[in-house]
Amino acid sequence: MAGRFITIEGGEGAGKSTAQAFLVDRLEQRGLSVVPTREPGGTPLAEAIRQTLLSVDGEAPVEMAELLLVFAARAQHLAKVIEPALAAGKWVVCDRFTDATYAYQGEARGLSSGLISELETLVQGARRPDTVILMDMAPKTGMARARSRGVLDRFEREDATFYERVRQGYLNRAKLAPDRYVVVNAEQDLPSVQRSLDELTERWFDVS
Ligand code: Z5A
Question: Model's pTM, two decimal places?
Fold first, then answer.
């Protein structure tokens, strides 16, 4: 079976990392070779860019610098991790990818989706996720979950209206290509979220 590129998206504290660990486990139980990874990050250089992006110390990047840093990290991640894994027939399950750029740098920061689309083509060529799992929830719930952890990064210091725009950005993306997006109600309790993920994996194997 050929590898698939799955991304998990959503606002702060929506349960992406938890869903990723669950999905990876389920896929490995089926004997698949799976590469879990994340953005920004996934390689030493891309993780260093992540630190810069999330840090609250020193100079904050302007919107355009933030966008270019996100894509610089993505170029490295694609070349070093994602493309080699997919070429080897592995499954890649990535916590955030380019839909996050449309939601955060586009809808929430106000940069144009046309510009993001140009960079997407420049950096990714034709590479797009096979499936995007959108963990959708009201920002209030996610912010409360994430903030219970303590120290806040640069994005986590944004207010609720920023996260409303992020959510809307994601939902708009899902509407544009409903065949590639699976919207999960992330407000449900964990067993219910996991049942939704199980139904999704069943569908992959039914059609394969
Ligand atoms: N960013 C960007 O601007 N542009 C881009 O292109 C990309 C990223 C790729 C990276 O942060 C930041 O980079 C991100 C956008 C920006 N900023 N924000 N915000 P990140 O990837 O670390 O994102 P995060 O949202 O801060 O991650 P998170 O806070 O770790 O959330 P999560 O992974 O979605 O949630 P979790 O860790 O799985 O769960 C949070 C807590 O809730 C935890 O205690 C769980 O046990 C609990 N949980 C999980 N599921 C449930 C359910 N169903 N019920 C109850 N409790 C639950």
Answer: 0.97
